[in-house]
């Protein structure tokens, strides 16, 4: 790609920097609270995120390791290890796909579902600074 076809980068102004700073501040506050909520429940924030992504995957109740890796922005082998830790804790189970036996589905167990719903309810109250998360459904 030649330098003439690259989009021009404009320097941020004071308003941009303030908005970026506020976004990072609110994001960091949320992540800190999320870590605390998860740790009190006896799981890591990554385990909570995995449960959330399994159950929150669009149009179905399970996800593949590759899909979870994408959602977590993690390497597939690291995600597979996280799934194994969640499986050992009784939170998820692996099932071979009936139509493509190479594909492995990750499902929540009843324990994983209970854990997720409890933690998600606690997290939901902290999404307020991110008003766009629930759109019109915010209660």
From TrEMBL:
Entry protein name: MarR family winged helix-turn-helix transcriptional regulator
Pfam families, alphabetized: MarR_2
Taxonomy, superkingdom: Bacteria
Domain HTH marR-type: start-end pairs: 16-139
InterPro entries found in the cross-reference section: HTH_MarR-typ, MarR/SlyA-like, WH-like_DNA-bd_sf, WH_DNA-bd_sf
